[in-house]
Structures are given as structure tokens and as C-alpha cells.
Model the fold of this input.
Amino acid sequence: MKAIDNRPRRRKIVAALTVLPVLVGGALIATGSSADATTPSSSSTKLEPCDIYAQGGTPCVAAHSTTRALYAKYDGALYQVKRASDGATLNIKPIRRGGYANAAAQDAFCTGTSCVITTIFDQSGHGNELTEAPPGGFNGPAAGGYDNLADASAAPVKVHGHEVYGVYVAPGTGYRNNNTTGIATGDEAEGEYALLDGTHYNRGCCFDYGNAETDSHDDGNGTMEAIYFGNSSFWGAGKGSGPWVMADLENGLFSGVHTQQNNNDPSVHDRFLTAIVDGGPDEWSIRGGDAQTGQLDTYYHGARPEADGYDPMKKQGAIILGIGGDNSNGSAGTFYEGAMTSGYPTEATEDAVQANIASMKYTAAKVALQPGPRVFLEATGAGGDGTYAIADVDDDAVHIDAVSTSSAAATKQAAKWVETAGLADPKCVSFESVAHPGYYIRHYGFVAKVEPNDDTAQFAQDATFCPTPGNSGTGTSFQSVNYPAKYLRAYEGALYVAADGGSNAWDTATDWSVQTSWLTKKHLGN
Ligand code: AHR
Ligand code: AHR
Done:
């Protein structure tokens, strides 16, 4: 294995590239262009991501998006929806050539019923459409072992203020194409980018977009090369508690050259997250950044992982979305757009693609909090007075700390929860963070965390607590629905589920009854 250093690539686009043929929806057109892919918009038409990749000499061989055209000249179908009422289908196109998706057509077609996304068309002209993933090493939940199709309206989002829809992957959902053309195989070089919702993820295997096995089975190390996003730390991890952008190279999610943790790969929480994985002979990279600011950092660039079977790679050239190579389908995430290239893109090309995504001004469609009273959860007992449960999504934790009416507005907001019907049992309650809609208090390893609802039954159980009279005789206690001996407990500045005596430090019988008793308040203070 050749050692490659970890500095950003500085390869420049050669100055001779003045007129480049660009493959647009299968048609070659000439684009007048500047010599440097960092200044793509100097031609008369604004270049879109796959125009930029083509200009950089690494054309898209697959281009998928339900939100917009990825070529300035593309006006074909972006995706197809099917409605439940009569099984009819409709192709959704951009509002105009190179524009955003005509989501109003979907809304009209799906009024009074529900729709799923059946096909995500390939805009590159290679015919690499994504459709319902077939069974493989693992069966999906739908008929015949296929995966579920995404609810077509579950991921509303805005581009330039226009409402469009992403692809909402709940566990069990997956898309695939096992019969592609033009996608890298073997050790051939490729680039992959995906624009994702960085606040929707889980630990399940494996929310991927990119190159995978053509038989939907685990064919061994190095037989896939896809972008992964989530907080699985089973194979590898980045810094902190995740979620991370990693590469799924089969039998491993890699964050760098070592098989386990690589601290250069940060936890990322951007609402709109650009995730990139590139791979070619003896080198690969992971990049990522906030698609609203246009920041893009290189988390890793260097040699193939220190493990057998990944150099040379044995890529097979299928395409997956929302699942692992062997059709593992326990993962969650949201996809807006993405593409795969032939050849290893330069960083300058990718930076220009990221600038293009930022120029689209993706913003969240307003997420509604669940119904229920807004409450503050105040701890009781000695030292508890005036301390509250506070959401900290960066730490994936719930802190217990002093909050008062004079605290910073952000702190007061982080201490506010919607006490909503229990996700696993409506007779009990769940606590949704007012500061982070869609995030709930859940326990994991009996430590309370604040995480996005990933729609799994496990999450619902871990996030449901049944109110009982306070164990100390004061206020209310919150009994874990799946571990009834355990209650929410304020212990040494953090929140846990704890039994009255047990193996974890926070199960100590000392002060258990007061530390598991809470005052649910409508206002801070008295
Ligand atoms: O590499 C991680 C996962 O391992 C792959 O996505 C899957 O094929 C296998 O289970
Ligand atoms: O918190 C205890 C258990 O830890 C949760 O039920 C599970 O999600 C995790 O394994």
C-alpha cells in the first residue's frame, strides 16, 4: 500500500479546458467555461452540480434528486410518486429547465390520499434510476422481502423559498439499482456527494448513498464504497458521539486510515449537510460541511484503511440509497440530492459544487412540535432546587444545571420540553425538546440522551416514561416504560434512568427517591 499524506489535494484544472463537452440528460452539449472549476458561474448559464463535475473532468454517471435539477439543462423527470387511493403514478419534473421540483403537482395529485416515491430518476442520462430495493442478505419489510418506499411528503424542505420534498428514509426504507451503467467498478476512481438532513439519523446499519454490490449481498471487504451518515460506532467512529460522515467499504464503516476511531472526523449536526466520499487507486477521502454556509472540510484524505481487502478495491457498481450493501435496512436519514462521478474529483470541483448547493438556499420547512404542554423539569431534594433538565444536542446529553428567568434565552429554551403523548404508549409521556423539534429524551445504556426520533420501536420505548406520584412524596416520578424498575434521575449533573440500587453508579440507593422526583413547571422559578 502506497503511503499518501493527509494534505488537501491541490490539483488544478488545466488552463486549456475552455470548451468542454458536457453530458446533459444523455445529450452532449458544449459549455463555454472558465479554466478553473472554482469559478464555474463565469459562463452565461449558471452551472449546476453535474455541470461543475463535468467541467472538472469528472462527469456524473448518476445524478439523483427529488428537489431540483442537477444540470442547468435538465428538464426530465426527477422522481415518480404513486398514490394509495388508486395506484396511479405521476412523474414530477422541474418547474423549468434546470429548476426546482414541481412539488405543487405532487400535492395536487396526492390530495386526500398518501403517496410514496417509487423511482428517483437518473438525470445523467445513464439510466441509473433508483427503485424499491430487493431482498438480499437481509429481507426488507415489504412484500417479497423488498424494502419500503419513502412517504413522498415526509421530508418537506424549501429551496429558494419554494416548498419541495426530500426522500425520508425511515427504518425499512431502501432504494437500489443493481444493473447500472458507467459506475466505477474494481479499483476505478469515483466521487460521490449527498446533501442530507444532518439532524435525522440513527445507529442502525446503514444510511448509505453510493456504490454497492450488484447481488445485494455482503461479498466481502472492499466490494462497496458508499457515503455513510449516522451514529453507528459498531465498526468505526469519528470524534465525539456522532453522527459522522464515514465511508461504507463493506464490513466496515471507516472514518480514516485506522479501523476504529479517527478523531479528525468530527461529529456533525448541520441541518443541511453535504457529505462526500471519493475513492480511487491507493487513495480515498471523506469531506463534509454545512450546505447553508458553504463550508466544506476534508476529514480524511490518504491511504486505504489498514485492514485486509480494501486495497485494491473490488467495487461492483450497484447504487444504494438508505440501506447497507447487503440490504441491511435498520437505518434512518433524509436525502435531498446526490451524484456519483467517473474519476476522482478535485477539491476545487467539490468546493464549487458545495458553493452551488449553498446558493440554492436550502431551508427547513417549519417543523411542528408535537401537541402537549410546555414544561420545565426541575430536580428536587438537596441541591436540586433551581436545577433543570437541559437539552444539549452537541453532547448528545441532558444536563442538570441551574436555570433561572435571568439565564440566556438559549439556555431557557433548551430547558423547555413538550410533554407529549408517549411515543410507545399514549397513556404515558415523552419529552420533545422545544429548542430542537423532533428530538426527544431517550435512554441508551441507561444514560439519558436527546436524539432525533428515528421512528424505530426501540427509540419509542426508550423515549417513553410513565408519570407516577413522586418517589419521595413530592412531585412526579417518570418510570421507564421498557425498564419499569428504573426512573428518570438527576445524578451528578446529568440525567439517567436509575433503579433503587443496582449495578450502575447512578443506581445508588442514596437519595434515589428524591433524585427520581421532579416538579413539572409551566414557568421557571417559583
Ligand atoms: O460495512 C457495513 C455493512 O456491513 C454493510 O453496509 C453491509 O453490507 C454489511 O452488513
Ligand atoms: O438504556 C438501556 C438500553 O440501551 C436501551 O433500551 C437501548 O436502546 C440501549 O441498548
Summary: Confidence is low (pLDDT under 50) at residues 1-44.
